[in-house]
Amino acid sequence: MGASSSTEQVPAEQREAESLAASTGALPMLRNAFTVLADPQTNTIPLHSLQKCFSLTVQNPECEATAIPAHFQRLLAHLGPSVVDLFFLAEKGGISWIEFLRGYVKCCGSASASSSFNALFRVFAMGVAKAGLPAKLMFESDDAHSKMSGFLIPTDLLMFLWMCYIMSWDSKDLELFGGERNHGLPDLSHLVLSSVLSCAEVGVDFNPWDCDILGMTMQLPAGKLHMWALRTVPSLPDCFTQFVHGRIQKCITSENKSDPSCSSVHDPPAIVDPNTTHLTRGRAWAISLTMRSTLREEILKVCFSSYSGGTNESLLYRSSLHGRGLNRFWSSVEGYNGPMLVLIAASLGDSYEDNGEVKRWILGALTHQAFENEDMFYGSAGCLYAISPVFNVFSSSAGKEKNFVYSHLHPTSRVYEPHPKPVGVAFGGSIGNERIFIDEDFSKVTVRHHAFDKTYQAGSLFPNQGFLPTEASVLEVEVWGLGGKNAKRTQTSYKKREELFTEQRRKVDLKTFASWEDSPEKMMMDMVSDPNSVRREDR
Hints:
By secondary structure, the protein is α+β, with helices and mostly antiparallel strands. The chain contains 17 helices and 15 strands.
């Protein structure tokens, strides 16, 4: 195996396999895992042991928004065998050290984005076939770069996304996700509708606010689906690579090596009440799939409540909790020097009437810096999001403008301004023609066509958005801090200092007036009695 001494001659193919595995940084972990899983007599991993390692089953899953197809659990039950059959070549006695390394590199090694998505779709297609379901995706060959053909229907895509979601939470610290309670899956309809509008032929009467995902039968062509995933959720393959890595790593920490805990079943974290915040687990996970940085880990802490200890410490501001208006908003975000995610829930029509005429949608804006009280645009990077009912991301474009964020309060000094700047919060566009503008009272939000914006990419921020500006009622504004514990700690210190300074300004230190001669009362009386006398303050 790979643990042979340096004096022993190592075959060239083993050196090559170990070199590729070492490039991923996981070679020591793989050595230990092979020792745990391998049969000492054959020095190979039994096929059933590796299949069990990657098996994933959720008992009686529930969804917070829709019914779960009955065959979804069958699909999950065949996930482990599908991964092994696709990527780990079994020999006569089992899976050798070399094939174990090669299989890991196929799953977790460096690859192009297109190849990574190809591997992920292969796992799903193999699981569908093993579960005895109709096969809709086909591949020209077993090569990682082979062309994918066929189609999926919205129900298939929903199960595919749920499979990726379960792999995503499973790849975190698995000890946090154990438990005996049965929990549910998030609402991912916004992602499914995004692919439907991008890949399928829908009529003009299609209403994304009122549609049944499980009842849709339109076909999503494989080529278009692949392009949609590359553009909208580029980090989705990471769910699979992190799942494979996490499952193998879990084998090492198992106390009972004959029955590795990496094959045990875990339940997803508890459902966060979708009415609690507008950043539900499904929406937070979808946003995380657009990121490839430390920001992704921060928003996953919001997505997986157990991962962050079940707290919402990242929530900096919520209008229904902290009060509406720019001043309340400012008092909550001031001093936070880090990336922030702003969510705006709005409605077209009377939000108090629950009828088909009311159109509710949620927009998002990601800033990479602190908010500043400026009468001009500022910032260096950012993204806009259409979150609900249809998900889309609009990153910064390579245009001439860098108008990422605008946040302007009323000036403290009462100076006449012939051309006063708008008071409110905005993202993209230009002053007077902002792509998104929230007014001072946080009662109205104005959304303009992307033609007015040369900072962010083009696209509709809500379904059926026209060219004319749209004014909607603000239902809620939320701000989530994604700067980690250090940014939150710095803001807490800043607020404590501000409170201390405010308290000190309110107090009058009477000890400084030790005698009548130094007292403010005597000073006032002297001014009344002889206002023409020269005093220290007049000099």
